[in-house]
Give the backbone structure.
Amino acid sequence: MDTVTAFSPLCQLDQIPDDGAIAVDAWLSCGDAAAEAVSLILLRRGEHVQGYLNICPHSGRRLDYAPGKFLLKHETLICAVHGATFHQESGMCIAGPCRGQHLRAVKVRVTDGIVEWVPRM
């Protein structure tokens, strides 16, 4: 895994299928905090990318059914383990065992076709 610093690239925008998602593994840190290895979900709609930690709030497990492969249906993201269903834009669980909970958002931005992590300062 590469170390990701403030505004470092996570991937190219065109690596994420439009209306699709990928997982990206990265080391993230904020300020003086030690870097932490994480898996991120990057969901794309046109030029907009939404980022979340790849962790289901219900089980604490990854949401992908195979590395980087996600169940997406009608603007939702479905956890492959227990079927928790999350709204892609808000990260809110709208059905399943953790209804009302949220995925943990990770702030990202797209600059010149590159998806970058934006640390919370």
Observations:
- Residues 9-117 form a domain with the Rieske Iron-sulfur Protein fold (CATH 2.102.10.10).
